[in-house]
Design brief:
Length: 177
C-alpha cells in the first residue's frame, strides 16, 4: 500500500472536542477521530504538480501545507474565536486510495475517504500564541480577501510572517490545555 502525506486544516476548539486527555497528560484514545470521512485536506495532487512544474516534492508539500493553513484560517473565521485564534494543520499519512482529488475546491484539495484517527497523525502544526492577534485580524477579513479586497488580502498575507510550529502528537494535550 502506498501512502500520501495530507494536511488537514482544523482548529484547537475542534481538536479539543475530538481528543480527550488522560490523567498522564497524553491523549487517552489513539483511535479518536480527528477528521471525518469526506473532510477536505490538502496534498500534492496532479493539479498542483501541473501548476508548479518546477517545484520539487518538498516545495509542493509546502504549498499544500500553506493551503491547509489558509483553510484553517477560514475555519476560524466561521466560528467564535474565544481566545483560540491559532491556525492548526495536522500532517497525516493515509493510503493513496483514501485521498480523492477535489479540484473543484482547490488545486491541492483532496477529500479523505475514511475517518482519520489520531494514531495516523505524524505531526501537529500550530501558530505560536504570539501570532493570535494577527490570526484573529486575518480571520475577520479572510472572506473579503477571498472576494478580491486588496486591503484584506494584505492583512491575510501578513500571516506569512508566522510559521506554524511543529508539535509531536504526544504534545497535543499541552496545546489543548
Amino acid at each position: 500500500m502506498t501512502t500520501v502525506r495530507v494536511y488537514v486544516p482544523t482548529t484547537l476548539p475542534d481538536m479539543s472536542g475530538r481528543v480527550r486527555v488522560a490523567a498522564d497528560g497524553r491523549p487517552d484514545d489513539p483511535r479518536a477521530v480527528v477528521a471525518d470521512p469526506g473532510a477536505v485536506a490538502f496534498a500534492v495532487t496532479p493539479g498542483l504538480r501541473e501548476w508548479y512544474r518546477d517545484g520539487d516534492l518538498e516545495e509542493l508539500e509546502y504549498v499544500a501545507f500553506t493551503h491547509a493553513a489558509r483553510a484553517s484560517l477560514r475555519n476560524l473565521a466561521s466560528s467564535p474565536l474565544n481566545g483560540a485564534a491559532r491556525r492548526v494543520v495536522l500532517a497525516i499519512d493515509i493510503a493513496d486510495s483514501d485521498a480523492v482529488v477535489a479540484p473543484e475546491i482547490d488545486l491541492s484539495a483532496v477529500r479523505v475517504g475514511a475517518a482519520v484517527t489520531l494514531d495516523v497523525v505524524a505531526a501537529v502544526h500550530v501558530d505560536d500564541p504570539s501570532a493570535a492577534p494577527d490570526v484573529e485580524a486575518a480571520a475577520r477579513v479572510v472572506a473579503a480577501a477571498d472576494a478580491g479586497d486588496d486591503d484584506a488580502q494584505f492583512v491575510v498575507d501578513g500571516l506569512d510572517d508566522h510559521e506554524l510550529q511543529w508539535y509531536a502528537v504526544q504534545e497535543i494535550a499541552a496545546l489543548l490545555g
